Amino acid sequence: MSFFGNLVDSMVSFANDSARTVAEEVINPAVSIIQNQLQRPRDVLEQQQILDNLQESNGSHFPGDDYHSPDRKNWMAHLSVDKLTLNKIVWPGTHDSATNGIGDPVFTRWLGECQTLSIFDQLVLGTRVLDIRIQEDRSVCHGALSSYNVDVVLNDVVRFLSETQSEIIILEIRTEFKKKDPMGFEAYLADKIGQFLIHQDDNLFDKPISEILPKRVICIWKPRDSQKPRRGGLLWNSDYLKDNWIDTDLPWTKFQSNLKHLSEQQPISYRRFFYRVENTVTPQADNLVVGVKPVTDRIRKHARLFISQCVSRGCGDKLQILSTDFIEGDFVDACVGLTHARIEGKV
C-alpha cells in the first residue's frame, strides 16, 4: 500500500476513534442525563399515585387517630405523667430543625430550608425531637449552607423549658458531614443547659416521666472526630439514636424502606435506644425539581398513612420517633394520639 494510502487509513482510523470517544464520553452521557430527566417525573408521579391509592383504599385510621391535643405546648402534661413511660412516647420530631432562614432568600434558601419555624415555635407546636447540625465555628448548617450560632437554638430550648414543667426533649446535636467538630463543645453544652440534662442511663426507658422530672433534656452529641460521650455522663452518644436513612426523592420507595426497617426493630419494651423514622425525601441531582419543599411534600402529607400502616402491619409497637420537614400541628396530634392509645393499652 502506498504512503498516501496508509496515511488516509490512519486518518480514517483516528477519525473513527475520535468519533467513538466523543460518543462514549460526551453524547451518550448527555443522552442518558436527558432520558433520566424525562423519566424521573414519571417515576415520581407513579409512586405518588401508589400512596394516594393506598390512602384511598385503606384510609389512615389507627388507635388514637381522632386525638387533638388541647395544648400542644404542654401535650405531655395533658397525658398522665405517672403512666407515660419514656419508651411509650411517639416523639414528633423535625428533620434539619435549625434551617429556618438559612442561606440567601433568593438564591439558596429553597435548596436547604427544611423548617420555617424557629426552634422555640417548633417546641410550642409540639416538636419534641430536634435535629441540629453544626460546624467548627458553632454555627448551624445544612451541607454548605450555614446560619445562626447554636446559641440561638439553646436559648430557645431554655426559654421553652422555663415556660413549661412536664415536657421532655430529645436534643440531637451533630457535626455536619465533612465539617470539623467545634472545640470544647461538651463543656459548652454542660455550661448552657447542664441544669436540664438527663444523665445517660439505660434504666430510664421503662421509667414514667414523673420519675425523670425535673430533668428535661436528653442531649445526644454526635461528633465526627472527637471522642464520643462516655456512658453514664451528662450527654448521650450516637448509640442511643439510630435510623435507617436512605437518599431518595421517590416517596413510595422511602415509605416502603421506612416500614421494612421499622418492622426489623425490637419492640419498644426491649429497646435501649431511640429509633427514628424520617417521613422525608431528599432532592436528587438527576431530577429537575431540587427545591426541598416541593420534593418533601411528596411524602410529608402521608404521615398518618404511615402510622396506620405500621399498626395494620403489626409494628405499631415499634414506632418511636417520627420526624418530618415543615412540621404542622396535625403531625403532632397524630403522634400524640398514638402515644395516648399506648397509655390506654390500645396498641
UniProtKB/TrEMBL annotation:
What does the record give under GO molecular function?
Answer: phosphoric diester hydrolase activity
Q: Which InterPro entries match?
A: PI-PLC_domain, PLC-like_Pdiesterase_TIM-brl, PLipase_C_PInositol-sp_X_dom
Q: Which GO terms describe its biological process?
A: lipid metabolic process
- Report the residue ranges that make up the Phosphatidylinositol-specific phospholipase C X domain in this protein: 101-203
- Gene3D superfamilies given in the database record: Phosphatidylinositol (PI) phosphodiesterase
Q: What SUPFAM superfamilies does this protein map onto?
A: PLC-like phosphodiesterases
> Domain of life here?
Eukaryota
Q: What is this protein called?
A: Phosphatidylinositol-specific phospholipase C X domain-containing protein
Q: Which organism is it from?
A: Arabidopsis lyrata subsp. lyrata
